[in-house]
Amino acid sequence: MEQGFIRAAAGTPKIQVADPEYNAGQILTMMEQGAKQRAKIMVFPELCLTGYTCGDLFLQDSLLECAKRQLARIVKESAHFDMIAFLGLPFQHQGKLYNTAAVAAGGKLLGLVPKQNIPNYSEFYELRHFTAGSQKPVWVEFEGQSVPMGANLLFACSTVPGLVLAAEICEDVWVPAPPSIRHVCAGATVVANCSASDETVGKDQYRKSLICGQSARLVCGYVYANAGEGESTQDLVFGGHNIIAENGTCLGESKRLGHGIIYGDLDLRRLVNERRRMNTHGFDWPGEDGDHMTVEFRLRREHLQLRRHIAPLPFVPSDPGERERRCEEILSIQAMGLKKRLEHTGTRHAVLGISGGLDSTLALLVTARAFDSLGIPRDHILGVTMPCFGTTDRTYQNACVMTEKLGAKLREIDIRESVLAHFRDIGQDKDNHDVTYENGQARERTQVLMDVANQMGGLVIGTGDMSELALGWATYNGDHMSMYGVNSSVPKTLVRHLVRYCADTCKEEELGRVLLDVLDTPVSPELLPPDGGVISQKTEDLVGPYELHDFFLYYVLRFGYEPARILRMAVHAFEGEYQREVILKWMKVFYRRFFSQQFKRSCLPDGPKVGSVAVSPRGDLRMPSDASSSLWLKQAEALS
Fold first, then answer.
1. Which of residues 349 and 291 earns the better pLDDT score?
2. Which among 71, 92, 173, 335 has the fewest CB atoms less than 10 Å away?
3. For the stretch 570-580, what's the b/e string if a residue is b when 16 or more beta carbons lie within 10 angstroms of its beta carbon?
């Protein structure tokens, strides 16, 4: 439960219809199992204490009283389990019978949440037995105590920041305006659903999309427990299809037609931070009786060994099919952005600096797409290769072949003499390979591209990616500058996959071979002389692995997490690949560079946003150029 992680469980016990004593034993056994797995939230199915399929037995006093006694047993035993549990039972109040979710924690019955939407169609006949519950809580008697019963109940944990639970029951989530909307607007971060949804062909897919979609719409955790084995199969089959979702992502799903427990580690901090970022999340619900009552409870705070999968490459989908779809979509967005700029300016020519590296390769591929969409011949694209002191034969040849195979024009402009003349003008020793030596080449290249574009009446297409911009790994007014930056919101880890996608899908064999060789080439600005003809200046040796920096960038900008939390997540995500000390080392580098280099991002050229993270000063990142990094660096240093 440190740093907002908490384990939830959805359990389907194998019950016996109309036998609350037996069912209570099964529920308690599952609660004990869940407690051993450190689950702090546990949800059971609708009417699981009696069985959902009791039919007219719900009219029997013996069944109702037995269910109430067994609820008291479970509530008492809950003192031994450090969790909050939601379980379904029929509960009688003032001559009416309600389909409720009982909420127990710490040896107390915290409340009863009645079902609001009672289905009475197709195979469902609940109105024969149950009355719809009200939103506004009322007080009912249970074991000599007054307990709130109503739909508008929130259960807030005083010891776990951000943990506020609410409940709805089965049909409630299938209606046009589920109660969970109201609950989340009132502050709930996790919704529990005690359900008894029978199985029909294809229903599981719809159910999963419904639950995941609701969690996304409400930016919440959603724990859905469904009835399963033991229910009567006289007319229906219940499959125990349990789902744990978080903001649209399925954290856990059980196999159908069985029983058991599934677990999912919810990230409360992620939910809270996401809601804070979205100023449209949460509003005053206009419905009647909208006021909620909050019931507090306590849980022990413990360190949780995460079972949750944390992707080491948050910008890159792990599923191959989804990754291909994402790549195609991003390439289309990039090309569409450039297409609009070309149309608006009436420009039919583009100029790119082609180095044979990843970024310029992607920019050239995108530019070709944009020209195709406008019906402009690709030979209106000029790829300029500008050999200088650090250029290797490998990158030079790749740049030439790639430009030719894509149908663009190629022009070689050797800048060695012009750079040396510039060094003489400013008194720079050509044997002093300092930052002036490096940046002088980068700025000369940009000047060449700008002037050539003026000659042609074209646009200079920027090639730098978002990871470089985040670290400031760009020469100010050098490769930092362009007339439109197609890669400006694409992180380095994603650039690789976009180029690979193009290599895998291109029909030109020689082009595919070159693209694969570009992928195999070390990332380098090639500003220092090669060592025996091989690249000597490797970017990741200097600033650190881009996969780590992209991880840091995602969680710093997308969720605003603090260093300790990001480090914990990175250690978990990169287990077996990077040691904690290595990750921490490069995290410090990230924070230092990210803050100190904001001035470069404050004057970025235009470029299309393609994902949920971007660094444009006109959109996603309104950050002062002189902000101090001391707060974050102090926190990072304290982790050493």
1. 349
2. 92
3. bbebbeeebee
Beta bridge partners of 118: none
Strands 5-12 and 221-226: unpaired
Q: What is the DSSP string of 31-55?
A: HHHHHHTT-SEEE--TTTTT-GGGG
- For residues 468-504, one letter each, b for 16 or more C-beta atoms within 10 angstroms of the residue's C-beta and e for the rest, the string is bbbbbbbbeebbbbbbbbbbbbbbbbbbbbbbbbbbe
Q: How far apart are CA 58 and CA 122, in angstroms?
A: 20
Kind of pairing between the strands at 5-12 and 260-267: antiparallel
Residues 372-416: tens digit of each pLDDT: 999 999 999 999 999 988 878 888 899 999 999 999 999 999 999
98/534 Cα distance (integer angstroms): 76
Per-residue pLDDT at 246 exceeds 60: yes
DSSP alpha helices (H): ranges in 537-629?
A: 539-543, 546-557, 563-573, 580-596, 598-601
Q: Quote the CA–CA distance of 533 and 551 in Å, as a whole number.
A: 33
Domains and CATH numbers, the chain: 7-297 (3.60.110.10), 320-637 (3.40.50.620)
Distance, in Å, from the CA atom of 412 to the CA atom of 264, rounded to the nearest integer, reads 57
Mean predicted confidence (pLDDT) in 228-232:
90
- Ranking 95-99, 481-485, 505-509 by mean pLDDT, the lowest is 505-509
User: Residue 235: its pLDDT value, please?
Assistant: 85
The torsion region of residue 107 among left (phi > 0), alpha (psi -120 to 50) and beta comes to left
Phi, psi angles (nearest 5°) of residue 447: -60, -45
Asked if residue 526 has pLDDT above 70, the reply is no
Residue with tokens 């971007």: 614
CA atoms of 31 and 43, how far apart (whole Å): 10
CA-closest candidate to residue 578, choices 548, 551, 543, 542: 548
- Find tokens 């920096």 and name the residue: 549
Digit-coded pLDDT (tens) for 270-306:
999 999 988 777 655 544 445 899 999 999 988 888 8
Residue 303 backbone dihedrals phi, psi, to 5 degrees: -75, 130
Q: What are phi and psi of 514, to 5 degrees?
A: -65, -40
By annotation, the residues acting in catalysis are 46, 115, 170
Tokens of 438: 């490096």
pTM of the full structure: 0.88
One-letter amino acid at 468 equals E
How would you class 605 by CB atoms within 10 Å of its CB: exposed for 0-12, middle for 13-18, buried for 19 or more? middle
Q: Which two tokens stand for residue 70?
A: 């067994």
Cβ-based neighbour number of residue 620 at 10 Å: 15
Q: Find the helix or strand (DSSP H, E) in which 8 lies.
A: strand 5-12
C-alpha angle with apex 65: 60 to 69, nearest 5 degrees?
150
